[in-house]
Design goal:
Blueprint: H1 27-39, H2 45-53, H3 65-98, H4 101-140
Helix pairs in contact: 3-4
């Protein structure tokens, strides 16, 4: 007789962790350890301790509220650019279909001027973002 059941659940790991160690800390040592752990983005405290013990390199990310807000605004700006691009194509198509060539060209000229202003503004934003990045990278050194 063969077993027709499906194998479900998590597949077993090749190298399981079976040995556990215990370390005792004083209150100040524990506070220092927790402060270090808060600065590092690791999935668990045990992974963090292993990184320290086996001298694996780890990154420390400092993220303040202003940086998060700035990145959120830049992300929303990119979605707005996509929206403007879609609307731009719709407006050009509508102008071409519904108006005479002279009126369409006049409206397209105004649209072109606004697009040039948008490109200028986006270049300023890129410059400000670079300044922000340089200031932030100096902060981390």
């Amino acid at each position: 007789m063969t077993d027709n059941r499906k194998k479900a659940g998590r597949k077993p790991k090749a190298d399981t962790t079976v040995y556990r160690c215990s370390v005792n800390f004083s209150a100040t040592e524990h506070a220092t350890l927790m402060a270090m752990y808060d600065k590092v983005q690791v999935e668990s405290m045990s992974a963090f301790v292993k990184m320290i013990l086996f001298s694996k390199p780890f990154k420390v990310f400092y993220m303040d509220e202003n940086t998060r807000v700035f990145i959120d605004k830049l992300s929303s700006l990119n979605s707005l650019y996509r929206t403007v691009g879609v609307e731009y194509a719709i407006v050009v198509k509508t102008l071409r279909e519904n108006f005479s060539e002279k009126k369409a060209m006049k409206a397209l000229y105004k649209l072109e001027q606004q697009t040039i202003e948008l490109v200028r503004l986006s270049r300023e934003i890129v410059g400000l973002a670079r300044q922000f990045d340089e200031a932030w990278s100096q902060k981390s050194r």
